[in-house]
Amino acid sequence: MKAIVQHRYGGPEVLALKEVRLPEIGEDEILVKVHASSATTADWRIRASAFPKALWLPGRLMMGLVRPRNPIPGGEFAGRVVEVGAKVTRFQPGEAVFGFSGHGANAEYLAMSESACVAPCPPSLSFTEAAALPFGGLAALVFLRDVAALKPGQRVLVVGATGGVGSYAVQIAKALGADVTAICSADNAWLARDLGAEQVLDYRTENPAQLGQRFDLVFDTVGAMDMAAARAVLKRDGLFLPLNFSLREMLQAFRARLFGGPRLQLAVNPDRAEDLEALSELVWEGRLRPVIDRMYPLSEVAEAHAYVEGRHRKGAVILTVAGPDAKSSPPPRGFPLFAA
Ligand SMILES: NC(=O)c1ccc[n+]([C@@H]2O[C@H](COP(=O)([O-])OP(=O)(O)OC[C@H]3O[C@@H](n4cnc5c(N)ncnc54)[C@H](OP(=O)(O)O)[C@@H]3O)[C@@H](O)[C@H]2O)c1
After folding, report:
1. Which of 19, 180, 203, 218 could pair with 230 in a Cys bridge, judged by C-beta atoms 3.0 to 4.6 Å apart?
2. Domain spans in the chain, listed from the N-terminal domain onward
3. Which fold has domain 135-264?
4. How far is the CA of 316 from the centre of ligand 1 (A)?
5. DSSP H helical ranges for the chain
6. Into which CATH architecture does domain 2-133+290-320 fall?
7. Helix, strand, or coil here: 116?
8. Whose C-alpha lies nearest to ligand 1, atom 5?
């Protein structure tokens, strides 16, 4: 099969399209023919070994000390099950699925455990659209619903509101009944509003502290805010939730707990199948839609990575793997599909 392969850490040029062996499945595994995958912030960080300073060594120990332990990159995917192991009960050959595998999805076929982060494809979405959901959708859902336990009527500030996670965070915060203020560039203010933000600030010219408003939650998806800036806009019992963290945030979380006032919480998304199903339900209810910025053929993965690394993407950057989208289906109800 064809797959993107990376045998060393480095720039986008380390990614090459190669012919590799088809993965073999175990008793509890499924083989998925991948129709669409993507390039995400997690993918380029792993490719470049761009882990936060204090987490560089743990990052390398997890991903491979000298070279990537898993040479095929790509976490998000949507496609069709073509083979199942003898003990598989959740899936059948022919079923359309989507999910997050962490690695291995930038390829024509992907083997994964049936108990991993994989679920039936949302019925109203094509493979391309479904592959745009897991990375950003899962992070937004888990951090807002579970970690922040966001309640209806609470006020949320989403930093990086039109990016890979942010574009889903705005929609999911709205679906949870929150009042959303978005921070992005002026160029993308229309998209943030279209996704549901009541108020939009341009990070180049506006400072949220000047609003004179207090928030229950600051959800920073890009690493643009620190605890001091968050404290200036949070209620006394508010929460600062940064997706990116290093030793500094760990110490600040400890200090905030010790001295009281707004809290800082750090968490890691557990990538669960049941959360994919929750995303599917939101899509079905018309409260969540995939946001796709650009699409590249698999062979142009290096260009896709370079674009995502620029940190101005709007929603997902898709890699098309298996020719035309074979799962014919109508677009999700009531929304334009593409960000621009
Ligand atoms: N802890 C976890 O479990 C977990 C899970 C998932 C992801 N993550 C991490 O979370 C991060 C999510 O990244 P992502 O892919 O969502 O980011 P991204 O797509 O690269 O973010 C791009 C967005 O950020 C905006 N932006 C750029 N600079 C900004 C600034 N100074 N202030 C405010 N907004 C700014 C851009 O807006 P304009 O284009 O309008 O300029 C664009 O909308 C990654 O680092 C990922 O590793 C962590």
Report:
1. 218
2. 2-133+290-320, 135-264
3. Rossmann fold (3.40.50)
4. 11
5. 41-48, 56-63, 127-130, 134-141, 166-175, 189-195, 227-231, 247-259, 273-284, 301-309
6. Alpha-Beta Complex (3.90)
7. coil
8. 139
